[in-house]
Automatic annotation (TrEMBL):
Its EC number is 6.3.4.13. Coiled coil: none annotated. The keyword Zinc does not apply. Residues 105-312 form the ATP-grasp domain. Its cofactor is Mg(2+); Mn(2+). It holds the Pfam family GARS_C. GO terms for biological process: 'de novo' IMP biosynthetic process; purine nucleobase biosynthetic process. This is Phosphoribosylamine--glycine ligase. InterPro entries: ATP-grasp, ATP_grasp_subdomain_1, PreATP-grasp_dom_sf, PRibGlycinamid_synth_ATP-grasp, PRibGlycinamide_synth, PRibGlycinamide_synth_C-dom, PRibGlycinamide_synth_C_sf, PRibGlycinamide_synth_CS. Belongs to the GARS family. SUPFAM superfamilies: Glutathione synthetase ATP-binding domain-like, PreATP-grasp domain, Rudiment single hybrid motif.
Length: 412
């Protein structure tokens, strides 16, 4: 069997790794891939969607799995399906659940999904006037479009809020992503991530995870794409899960059916949990990164078999190991702002836990850094503390210039 995985990060390396664990004979291709994916498959230098479709046809690819959100929002699924090619991911219409926070918020409110109160704005003046009417801060301001996980800002007062909407809407800090903004009620509590797979009829949730988004220890500093994850989330109880199913998963499932949003793919629920219940902050419509790297090593089931069943509209179950993971991201110093690339990474051969490359490429005689988030080290244990120790013991074996990581991933 031939499988094409679209993307070049740690998420795609982890998906390929899990498929290979369960199906060693599967032939993997990655677009564009990285130094890690090159070890388990073939990296192809194609990113144009039409060219990717031609590659899949010409090479008789049996299944394509899409990692990043941008390709989904740009309609890769529609392009592939028009040619009769099997592909796992939402079509362009359904991808708006992530591609437009305005679209997603309207969907939540229409279908009774429990979420924070919010208003959406297309014009700076309207957003400014609404902020002037608000008496209680903090509030949350979100760029509606895709902003690589960085388009959400919590503001403490009106002056900060006015500056943020000016940056987003007038100065285009996030490009076209900030053309529209969502101004949302701030919810206290703790966050939780739940990945799931949708087969067009039912949503099957994965185990919970806890993401650490900020660059600094103690959740301080700038937002990043994620500096580490633990799974399962130690704060998320069985009662929380029941509330999630009743107030979020089930209304989402009914809403998808009512709207005719029929696809096989991932739905990622970003949750906020407090004394008032479980709230949905956002949908993503692809495997989270780095949540995927923490969750897949705990999966007993065959991921490829699950995805194939979902694409065929068949029912499936997922079973999990009774263990914990702690995924710690090693980043380039300066990330998420300016950072240098091209530093040799040493010690990877000494690591004895799952390791997923994110931003590194192979040269003739070395593996060198090529991105902000460089690699993910995943400790596994019978307790969270064991998993943390395993992750950090293995990080100590790796070295590259200006390497940076948080030392508090998994501390509750």
């Amino acid at each position: 069997m031939k499988v094409l995985i679209v993307g070049s990060g740690g998420r795609e390396h982890a998906i390929g790794w899990k498929i290979k664990q369960d199906n060693p004979s599967v032939e993997l291709f990655f677009s564009i891939g990285n130094a890690g994916t090159a070890e388990i498959g073939e990296n192809i230098g194609i990113s144009d969607l039409e060219e990717l479709k031609d590659f899949a046809k010409n090479n008789k690819i049996d299944l394509t799995i899409v990692g990043p959100e941008m390709e989904l929002v740009d309609g890769i699924v529609d392009i592939f399906e028009a040619e009769g090619l099997k592909i796992f991911g939402p079509n362009q219409e359904a991808a708006e659940l992530e591609g437009s926070k305005v679209f997603a918020k309207d969907f939540m409110e229409k279908h009774g999904v429990k979420t924070a109160f919010a208003k959406s704005f297309r014009h700076f003046v309207d957003a400014r006037d609404y902020l002037n009417s608000i008496e209680e801060f903090p509030v949350v301001i979100k760029a509606s479009g895709l902003a690589a996980g960085k388009g959400v800002v919590i503001v403490q007062n009106n002056d900060e809020a006015q500056e943020v909407i000016r940056d987003m809407m007038n100065d285009k800090t996030f490009g076209d992503a900030g053309t529209q903004v969502v101004i949302e009620q701030f919810l206290e509590g703790f966050e939780c991530s739940i990945l799931s797979i949708y087969n067009g009829k039912e949503i099957v949730p994965f185990i919970s995870a806890k993401d650490h988004k900020k660059i600094g220890e103690g959740e301080t500093g700038l937002n990043t794409g994620g500096m580490g994850v633990v799974a399962p989330n130690p704060l998320f109880t069985d009662a929380h899960f029941e509330a999630f199913e009743k107030d979020i998963l089930e209304p989402t499932q009914k809403g998808l059916a009512a709207e005719g949003l029929d696809f096989a793919g991932v739905i990622f629920f970003g949750l906020m949990v407090n004394e008032s219940g479980v709230y949905l902050l956002e949908y993503n419509i692809r495997f989270g990164d780095p949540e995927t790297e923490a969750v897949l090593p705990l999966m007993n089931s065959d991921l490829l078999e699950i995805i194939e069943k979902a694409v065929n509209g068949e029912s499936f179950e997922v079973s999990w190991k009774n263990q914990h993971t702690c995924c710690v991201v090693l980043a380039s110093g300066g990330y998420p702002l300016n950072y240098d690339k091209g530093f040799e990474i040493k010690g990877l051969d000494r690591v004895d836990v799952p390791l997923f490359i994110a931003g590194a490429q192979k040269t003739e005689d070395a593996i060198v850094t090529s991105g902000g988030r460089v690699l993910n080290v995943v400790g596994i244990g019978d307790s969270l503390e064991q998993a943390r120790k395993s992750a950090y013991d293995n990080i100590a074996k790796i070295n590259f210039d200006y390497a940076y990581f948080r030392e508090d991933i998994g501390k509750v």
